[in-house]
Write a structure and sequence with these properties.
The chain is an alpha+beta fold and 231 residues long. Helices cover 32% and strands 23% of the residues. The protein contains seven helices and six strands; from the N terminus they run E-E-H-H-E-H-H-H-E-H-E-E-H. Helix 3 packs across helix 4 and helix 4 runs antiparallel to helix 5.
């Protein structure tokens, strides 16, 4: 049964034409569009299978963005909806969270397990220019800190005979380079010849990785290096 159209502010009849009065149109109510013709405050988005609920005001922060056009029912946008009425957007929901939060409060907040490049991709897709600039600045700041980290090396001390020395040095690869050669004399005889022995100190640069481990020269290596410098 349809609800009765009732107004608490009836307009007196004018000129006996039946305008106003009980059942007649109201000047105040007639200025309000019928229910359903005004967009609602809340908007539901289905981003890659994950639903987000936000306000139309939030999505309209940037008038040049894709989300603003979506809220304006832009005819150039092919905006399908799911069975709940949510707009379907085929993007990664993981990286949509920081984008939506930025539109809510104007701050860039990215969890430590998310890559800034992923957020940048979404900001560029939705065409939110101010967010694009913020994310690019954050990436440059991150890369600058990494480049300022001192280079570290790992050291190894190898023991070899004189006849093995040339072959060992010439076959070093994978970033290893020769640092120091320490003679430890002839400790034994092989046949009728003395076999000299050496300690060969080599090093390798460690690249900066988030979970990499760094190694410093061991105490034994330092002692051997000092011993070699005195010989």
């Amino acid at each position: 049964m349809a609800a009765e159209n009732h107004c608490d502010f009836p307009v007196p009849p004018i000129g006996g034409l039946g305008l106003g009065g009980p059942g007649g149109p109201c000047r105040r109510c007639s200025s309000v569009p019928p229910l359903g013709t005004v967009p609602g405050k809340w908007v539901r988005l289905n981003v890659g299978g994950t639903c987000f609920l936000t306000t139309r005001q939030t999505l309209c922060r940037d008038p040049k963005s894709f989300l603003f056009r979506l809220c304006q029912a832009d005819p150039d946008l092919d905006s399908d909806k799911d069975e709940t009425g949510a707009y379907l957007i085929d993007r990664d929901p993981t990286y949509f969270g920081p984008v939506l939060n930025y539109l809510r409060h104007g701050k860039l907040v990215i969890n430590k397990d998310l890559a800034e490049e992923g957020v940048l991709e979404e900001a560029e897709f939705y065409n939110i220019t101010s967010l694009i600039k913020l994310v690019k600045d954050k990436i440059r700041e991150r890369d600058s800190k990494i480049s300022q980290v001192p280079v570290k090396h790992v050291y190894r001390v190898l023991q070899c005979q004189e006849e093995e020395l040339t072959q060992m040095v010439s076959t070093m690869s994978d970033g290893w380079k020769f640092e120091q050669l320490v003679s430890i004399g002839s400790s034994y005889n092989y046949g009728n010849e003395d076999q000299a022995e050496f300690l060969c100190v080599v090093s390798k640069e460690l690249h900066n990785t988030p979970y990499g481990t760094t190694s410093e020269p061991s105490e034994k290596a330092k002692i051997l290096q000092e011993r070699g410098s005195r010989m």
